Amino acid sequence: MTSTIKTIGILGGGQLGMMLAQAALQLGYRCVFLEDADNAPASLYGQVFKSHELDKFIAASDVFTLEFENTPVDTARKLGELDNKGGLFPPADALQIAQDRLAEKALFNQLNINTVPYLSVSSLDELRNACQQLGLPLVLKTSRGGYDGKGQFVIKTANDIQTAWHELGDAVTGQGGLTSTPAPLIAEGFINFSREVSIIAVRAKNGDIRYYPLVENHHKNGILAKTIAPADNIAYLTEQAQSNIGKILTHLDYVGVLTLELFVTESGLIANEIAPRVHNSGHWSIEGAYCSQFENHIRAVTGLPLGDTQIAKPSVMLNVIGKYPDINQLLSIDGVHFHHYHKSERTGRKIGHITITADEPNAAVAAIEQLLD
Fold this sequence. Notes:
By secondary structure, this protein is an alpha+beta fold. The chain is built from 13 helices and 17 strands. Strands 9, 10, 11, 12, 13, 14, 15, 16 and 17 form a nine-stranded antiparallel β-sheet that branches. The protein has a four-stranded parallel β-sheet with strand order 3-2-1-4. Strands 5-8-6-7 form a four-stranded antiparallel β-sheet, sandwiched between helices. β9 and β10 form a beta hairpin. The longest helix is centred in the middle third of the chain and has 14 residues, at 238-251. The relative contact order is 0.12. The model has no long low-confidence stretch (mean pLDDT 95).
């Protein structure tokens, strides 16, 4: 029951866990975290337990959730099945599917959600066959473990096939650097798309679903750099996006925030992947929506009524990657909200984000992008 929940145990202690804890505190809940990395951002908001302290983490928690989809599924199932705790939300089944791109695509197809054509690849000969069947160019990816552009290779010509297999083939035997678990690769047919978008939704324990608006995402070097909320001139695709993510939420009996990444094509939306957690493309909602993705996730996990997902103010979110900007210059720009992740600077690392809330944000965005270069 909701009244018995005082402390939320979060699997992972990164910036997502930190922002979940910030939202939880506002609602009267505390958080603890299971995280092996030192100096985790979430440590500012609650006690952090290491993996070997799992029993202590369990004892300190009343209910469980996660902020990192590469959490071991066995651990997630164990937490979800504890009789004396409030359960794990979202369910371990969602975590297992999100960790495997082949299982993810199979679920999309089962639910009649459009995807790119794809094939499983477990050998160099199968890769050559996939290139013939799907045509070139195509994208070869690890089915497990890749993120932020890692674990993938674009095969443009037949001359790239051997190189692609050399780069990623070790993942099939479990020797790859991204994952130690043997798994087939996935070859995805190339599609022509105009934009990358995402939709975030939240589902309550009673089945109530609320949808955030479609947002447009821009990537740089495989890492999300900018999100525009709402996406311009895309309202006609809202019904399809909500239908797609709604089917996934219902099928998995999902509780909490789920993100679905999509491509916009001439024939409609093509599903790319899901993230069973709060998501980088929803950070704008802290200032830009009536109820943020973080607060709504906490509401769902604890059994509270869901909040309003409508946009309060048009927003643009910019990731701070690698190096912090001059905060004095940054905050001299009206409409700017800065979120510092308390992480050390490192090339390619997400260390903060900036949200601009304004009816006409373009000038502010351009100025900030210059600061971030």
